[in-house]
From TrEMBL:
Name this polypeptide is given: Guanidinium exporter
Family per similarity comment: Belongs to the drug/metabolite transporter (DMT) superfamily. Small multidrug resistance (SMR) (TC 2.A.7.1) family. Gdx/SugE subfamily.
Organism: Telluria aromaticivorans
Gene Ontology molecular functions: transmembrane transporter activity
Gene encoding the protein: sugE
Compartments (UniProt record): Cell membrane
Major place of residence: membrane
Protein topology in the membrane: Multi-pass membrane protein
Amino acid sequence: MSWFYLFIAGLLEIAWAVGLKYTEGFTKLMPSLWTLLAMLGSIGMLGLALRQLPLGTAYAVWTGIGTVGTAIAGMVMLGEPAGAMRLGAIALIVTGIVALKFLSPG
């Protein structure tokens, strides 16, 4: 169950990172509230995952999911560049996340 919590925490990290773009410096009420709720949910789920997972592994996977998801969201939703080197770097991060999953207890 801890890996599920960590996965949800990563998805919520993507949500709040993307949400920051729409808050316009926290001047828009609804995007700001949703972003803050996603932040709290992400930290809360990470906390649940840390009950059983090693700190270093959980944090690396959490930030990795957030990094990959946010980069992909930027490309898909905001028209950010998706060059071969950038996609290759994202693939390396995904490889690291998968390796940590299979090499870690829990």
